[in-house]
Amino acid sequence: MAEGSDDIQALIALMSRLPGLGPRSARRVVLHLIRKRAGQMAQLAQLLDSVAQHSRECMTCGNITDRDTCAICADPDRATGEICVVEDVADLWALERGHAFKGRYHVLGGTLSALDEIGPEDLGIPNLVDRIQRERATEVILALNATVDGQTTAHYIADALDSTGVTVTGLAQGVPIGGELDYLDDGTISAALRARRRL
Amino acid sequence: MAEGSDDIQALIALMSRLPGLGPRSARRVVLHLIRKRAGQMAQLAQLLDSVAQHSRECMTCGNITDRDTCAICADPDRATGEICVVEDVADLWALERGHAFKGRYHVLGGTLSALDEIGPEDLGIPNLVDRIQRERATEVILALNATVDGQTTAHYIADALDSTGVTVTGLAQGVPIGGELDYLDDGTISAALRARRRL
Ligand SMILES: [Zn+2]
Ligand SMILES: [Zn+2]
């Protein structure tokens, strides 16, 4: 038992499986927390517990929230008729940090993928079409990653929305080929949004 | 409020201050945990709470443990008369992973530093000298980092132990100049320990 106690070893093992961390960084984080335990560790435990208990998906858009309806869907100022479709909550957060978009979102939770057998139903694309019609949206911005799967999904959604008459746009070229939104700086993502083009 | 809820934002802020993490990696970790919340997040909260409550320093060697005396100090097979002095618990863990040392440890918790006004008393060096005499240790291995402060501290301790008659050794050259133990691979650290030299 090299690392102090069974609980410490279990904590390191659990942390080393988090994205971006490995065994070495997990050990450093855990040692850091043990040294600061009076403050940070108890606070971290309490926040993790609270977030675990209260986080859920917004029933309307799929954003993560601690209520039935997220703050963006609940804000009447954001009823602009524009709905921005993203793959992931991380992309929604990235767009919000850019402060360029004033409408609402729709989180798919992934992309179509023949390989992983993810079809339109798995991503709730029929529900998205219903929502667009129910809310009489004027514009749908497909802010999907510039990857093959992201662009395949964008074309599929554009086709599915064809009969609704809504304007469908995509982010401007400015998102690098193969680029993932969450890795772009906030200025690039805002510029690409402002220069969005009709698909 | 871009990131879901006040608690989520606080959790991201706290995580982004951990060593090796920044805002982007903290956001990815928190999103990952929220997606897995049924399992990993509650488990992580519980382990953090348990480790925060039960972790303390071994009264004998300064290792982190959940008892008064750590498993290494409590193990009679490790009463070899050899005491390995390290700067930090991370270094003790690194040596244990190498499986080359069968004695006991002494964790200084830092190095002498004129700049940071850290003197021998702050590192408990008088207590170390007492312990060496009380336990009638036969060899003290100074496994300090190959940095200026680490080597200054090693020479200071070697001088302080001069009158006790104990054999004082250091790790073999093999630890690169300026290298920090916790960044070495386990094989290098074991080889350097086996080839340790008398100071
Ligand atoms: Zn929402
Ligand atoms: Zn101990």
UniProtKB/TrEMBL annotation, chains A, B:
<dbReference type="GO" id="GO:0006310">
    <property type="term" value="P:DNA recombination"/>
</dbReference>
<dbReference type="InterPro" id="IPR000093">
    <property type="entry name" value="DNA_Rcmb_RecR"/>
</dbReference>
<dbReference type="InterPro" id="IPR023627">
    <property type="entry name" value="Rcmb_RecR"/>
</dbReference>
<dbReference type="GO" id="GO:0003677">
    <property type="term" value="F:DNA binding"/>
</dbReference>
<comment type="similarity">
    <text>Belongs to the RecR family.</text>
</comment>
<comment type="function">
    <text>May play a role in DNA repair. It seems to be involved in an RecBC-independent recombinational process of DNA repair. It may act with RecF and RecO.</text>
</comment>
<keyword id="KW-0863">Zinc-finger</keyword>
<keyword id="KW-0233">DNA recombination</keyword>
<dbReference type="InterPro" id="IPR006171">
    <property type="entry name" value="TOPRIM_dom"/>
</dbReference>
<dbReference type="Pfam" id="PF13662">
    <property type="entry name" value="Toprim_4"/>
</dbReference>
<feature type="zinc finger region" description="C4-type">
    <location>
        <begin position="58"/>
        <end position="73"/>
    </location>
</feature>
<feature type="domain" description="Toprim">
    <location>
        <begin position="81"/>
        <end position="176"/>
    </location>
</feature>
<keyword id="KW-0234">DNA repair</keyword>
<keyword id="KW-0862">Zinc</keyword>
<keyword id="KW-0479">Metal-binding</keyword>
<keyword id="KW-0227">DNA damage</keyword>
<dbReference type="Pfam" id="PF02132">
    <property type="entry name" value="RecR_ZnF"/>
</dbReference>
<dbReference type="InterPro" id="IPR034137">
    <property type="entry name" value="TOPRIM_RecR"/>
</dbReference>
<dbReference type="GO" id="GO:0008270">
    <property type="term" value="F:zinc ion binding"/>
</dbReference>
<dbReference type="InterPro" id="IPR015967">
    <property type="entry name" value="Rcmb_RecR_Znf"/>
</dbReference>
<dbReference type="Pfam" id="PF21175">
    <property type="entry name" value="RecR_C"/>
</dbReference>
<protein>
    <recommendedName>
        <fullName>Recombination protein RecR</fullName>
    </recommendedName>
</protein>
<dbReference type="GO" id="GO:0006281">
    <property type="term" value="P:DNA repair"/>
</dbReference>
<dbReference type="Pfam" id="PF21176">
    <property type="entry name" value="RecR_HhH"/>
</dbReference>
